[in-house]
């Protein structure tokens, strides 16, 4: 049987190891998310898609409705 002091030490070491693993997974996810800006999709299927600008507002909205669908673009119009 372990002493209470050794038991606590072992638990702390286990928690530290779990925390280290979780932080490594978070860093991997952050790295994957950062590079997701350069992804090309062949096809995306959804009922509603909102493109959010850097200010947090919807810039473009695509959605289906009873007539087929709607595309809305918000913001200042630009010349092409």
| Rounded average pLDDT | 83
| SSE class | alpha+beta
Question: What percent of residues are in strands?
Answer: 15-25%
Q: How are the strands ordered across the major sheet?
A: 1-2-3
Secondary structure: helix percent: 40-55%
Q: How many structural units, i.e. domains?
A: 2
Multimeric state: single chain
> What is the straight-line distance between the termini?
77 Å
Tally of helical runs: 1
Largest sheet: 3 strands, antiparallel
Quick one: how many beta strands? 3
Q: H/E element string?
A: HEEE
Bulk shape = elongated
- Rg of Cα set: 24 Å
- Which residues form runs of ≥5 with pLDDT under 50? none
What would you note in describing this structure?
It is a single chain. This protein has 80 residues and is an alpha+beta fold. It has two domains: 1-39; 42-80, no CATH class. Helix content is 40%, strand content 19%. The protein has one helix at 4-35, and strands at 48-52, 58-63, 70-73. The radius of gyration is 24 Å and the shape is elongated. The mean pLDDT is 83.
